[in-house]
């Protein structure tokens, strides 16, 4: 048998026992050599992941840049000092003033002439959005545009022009001279709250938002046609978007008695329906839908500097996604025709003061009668009150040794709120002090019960009836009988230091489906 010739190998070539590959040291163990090429499937996967990662980053960057460039911003205040630290948008209670501008420039020019609005324009809509710290409650409180208020001194941030305070002017004019910050300062002054942010949208925001969600269902009691706004709807439920959605919100005379209050109810109904749709569609949890809405809104939105970032807007949006519809309350500030002009509105007291006190105490407005005792101590008394001694307040006797009906008790109204003194005097009369009278007095921050010589036994009973602590009962040489000097720390309710939710302030929740009553004058025949 012929043997095959042995193949001669050169030292160091592949195949020789212990030989090294090119570039390897002789004797290197095989398991320490460089690995073989990666499998094709793994290479494809790695490339795909890399491409998707880069595309995702590019997509996110594109949207952040796009949305950020959409946003316009303005100062939160027009000069009023802010007390306390700024709120944490993710974890704190948040109060955001939502405004609709009536400016007619730019894309809004089709809705009127530039003469229809001056300066910064006027607020066509004004609502205060309040989100609880635990994200379980949301309220939207509407302020009628015709409401007469006092506008504080404001400074235009663009020109530094100072505008003096105005009395008894419509609340929608608050931003006309010095900008949105003046509207914020006005609502803070009116309510005693401290607003954290604002959002102002123009007419186009409504159209584009309603288009982005595919329309909003609204219900009307009768077929309606309003030639002024262009609203035309059949009786029953319709889906509105674009121009018809804007017309539904803009109509001044279409609903109720044709006043601004009817328009507010329609706006609340629209927002209620919008909330239900967004919740049912899972929009706030759907990035694609959320981006579409964010793009539509931010192109027509002005916010304060603290809210002028995409992250801040997304943070607030995420806080709203799990709120129960029954805890999204639409509130109307209690008003009545103004005494100075029946075509304007003024606050109804004491209901308005009670509402603002409940809001300051962070009460659930969907629970009428809910109460809370503020933890903060009343501020020190201002000068101008009757002089008093430092004598300790007397303690109340177990059984009065006097006739309540004969005691001279007066209420000095230092709250600055019309009819507030009358309300407290009426409560004293109901408690047996039937001679109680009231008069207007200089404004003071702190409530004190003063008493003259011989009335040390009466004063504690008067204070106890109103819930005023004994530490605020003082002897005063200038007082005859007992005088209850009420200050701004007692501007609502008949029990001092206790805030309560008045009845009938919540007009509907987001869970309620309502039809708007059409103004008889605009029913389409």
Automatic annotation (TrEMBL):
Spans traversing the lipid bilayer: 40-65
InterPro entries reported in the protein's UniProt record? LytR/CpsA/Psr_C, LytR/CpsA/Psr_CW_biosynth, LytR_CpsA_psr
Instruction: List the residue ranges forming a coiled coil, or say none.
Output: none
Q: Where is the Cell envelope-related transcriptional attenuator domain?
A: 123-279
Name the source's superkingdom. Answer: Bacteria
* Gene3D superfamilies named among the record's database cross-references: 3.30.70.2390, LCP protein (3.40.630.190)
Query: In the UniProt record, does the keyword Magnesium occur?
Result: no
- According to the record, the residues making up region (Disordered) are 1-31, 367-396
Keyword hit for Transmembrane: yes
Q: Which UniProt keywords apply?
A: Membrane, Transmembrane, Transmembrane helix
Q: Which residues form the LytR/CpsA/Psr regulator C-terminal domain?
A: 408-490
- Could you say which protein family the record assigns here? Belongs to the LytR/CpsA/Psr (LCP) family.
User: Which PANTHER family does the entry link to?
Assistant: POLYISOPRENYL-TEICHOIC ACID--PEPTIDOGLYCAN TEICHOIC ACID TRANSFERASE TAGU
Q: Kindly provide the name given to this protein in its UniProt entry.
A: LCP family protein
User: What is the scientific name of the source organism?
Assistant: Arthrobacter ramosus
């Amino acid at each position: 048998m012929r043997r095959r010739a042995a193949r001669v190998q050169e030292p160091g070539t592949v195949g020789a026992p212990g030989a090294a590959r090119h570039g390897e040291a002789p004797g290197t163990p095989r398991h320490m050599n460089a690995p073989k090429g990666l499998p094709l499937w793994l290479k494809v996967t790695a490339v795909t992941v890399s491409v998707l990662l880069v595309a995702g980053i590019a997509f996110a960057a594109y949207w952040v840049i796009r949305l950020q460039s959409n946003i316009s911003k303005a100062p939160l205040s027009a000069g009023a000092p802010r007390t306390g630290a700024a709120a944490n948008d993710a974890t704190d209670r948040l109060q955001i003033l939502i405004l609709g501008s009536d400016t007619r420039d730019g894309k809004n020019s089709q809705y009127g002439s530039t003469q229809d609005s001056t300066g910064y324009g006027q607020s066509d809509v004004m609502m205060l959005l309040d989100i609880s710290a635990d994200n379980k409650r949301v309220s939207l409180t509407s302020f009628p545009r015709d409401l007469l208020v006092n506008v504080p001194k404001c400074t235009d941030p663009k020109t530094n022009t100072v505008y003096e305070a105005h009395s008894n002017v419509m609340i929608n004019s608050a931003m006309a001279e010095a900008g949105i910050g003046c509207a914020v300062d006005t609502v803070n002054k009116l309510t005693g709250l401290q607003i954290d942010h604002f959002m102002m949208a123009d007419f186009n925001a409504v159209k584009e938002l309603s288009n982005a969600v595919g329309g909003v269902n609204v219900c009307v009691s009768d077929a309606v046609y309003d030639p002024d706004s262009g609203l035309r709807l059949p009786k029953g439920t319709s889906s509105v978007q674009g121009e018809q959605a804007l017309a539904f919100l803009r109509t001044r005379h279409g609903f109720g008695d044709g006043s601004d209050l009817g328009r507010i109810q329609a706006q609340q109904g629209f927002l209620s329906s919008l909330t239900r749709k967004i919740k049912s569609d899972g929009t706030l949890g759907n990035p694609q839908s959320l981006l579409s809405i964010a793009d539509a809104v931010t192109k027509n939105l002005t916010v304060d500097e603290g809210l002028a970032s995409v992250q801040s807007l997304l943070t607030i949006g995420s806080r709203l996604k799990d709120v129960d519809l029954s805890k999204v309350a639409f509130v109307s500030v209690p008003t009545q025709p103004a005494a100075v002009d029946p075509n304007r509105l003024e606050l109804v007291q004491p209901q308005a003061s009670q509402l603002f006190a409940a809001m300051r105490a962070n009460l659930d407005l969907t629970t009428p009668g809910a109460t809370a005792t503020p933890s903060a101590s009343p501020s020190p008394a201002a000068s101008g009150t009757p002089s008093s001694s430092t004598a300790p307040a007397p303690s109340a006797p177990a059984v009065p040794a006097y006739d309540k009906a004969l005691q001279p008790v007066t209420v000095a109204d230092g709250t600055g709120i019309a009819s507030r003194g009358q309300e407290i005097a009426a409560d004293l009369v109901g408690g047996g002090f039937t001679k109680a009278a009231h008069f207007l007095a200089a404004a003071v921050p702190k409530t004190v019960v003063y008493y003259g010589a011989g009335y040390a036994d009466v004063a504690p009973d008067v204070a106890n009836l109103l819930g005023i602590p004994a530490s605020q009962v003082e002897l005063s040489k200038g007082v005859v009988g007992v005088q209850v000097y009420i200050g701004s720390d007692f501007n609502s309710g008949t029990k001092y230091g206790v805030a309560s939710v008045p009845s009938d302030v919540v007009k509907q929740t987001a869970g309620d489906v309502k039809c708007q009553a059409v103004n008889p004058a605009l029913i389409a025949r």
